[in-house]
Amino acid sequence: MLEYGNGVSQGAGRVNGGGGGGGSTDMTVQIGQAFNDSIHTLSTLPPAALLGLVVMVVVGLWVLKRALF
Q1: pLDDT, mean of residues 1-16
Q2: Where does residue 13 rank: exposed (0-12), middle (13-18), buried (19+ CB within 10 A)?
Q3: Does residue 20 contact residue 10 with C-beta atoms inside 8 Å?
Q4: How far apart are CA 10 and CA 65, in angstroms?
Q5: Res 40: pLDDT
Q6: Residue 10 and residue 1: Cα distance in Å, rounded?
């Protein structure tokens, strides 16, 4: 089914045997998109989850310091 205009980009990838999806293969673009996705995920977390994430990072760094030094 071809909905929301995705049929052209996905269909063209299937016809020529490529990966499909019309996505970019430029590594810098992919890194930028991964960074953007992670920032978006962090911005949508509730405050309690953000606090828990900060606590886990601090505890992880403390354990790493104790293990190495």
Answers
A1: 55
A2: middle
A3: yes
A4: 48
A5: 95
A6: 11
51 vs 33: CA distance, rounded Å: 25
Helix (H) or strand (E) holding 6: helix 6-15
Q: How far is CA 9 from CA 34, 55, 62, in A?
A: 21, 43, 48
Comparing 52 with 9, which gets the higher pLDDT? Answer: 52
- Angle value at C-alpha 68, between 67 and 69, nearest 5 degrees: 105
Q: Tokens standing for 59?
A: 């505890």
Q: Summarize pLDDT for 11-69 with one digit per residue, the tens.
A: 555 555 555 555 557 888 999 999 999 999 999 999 999 999 999 999 999 999 999 98
In the structure encoding, which two tokens stand for residue 52, read together?
């828990």
Report field, pTM of the whole predicted structure over 0.85: no
| Terminal alpha carbon distance of the chain | 59
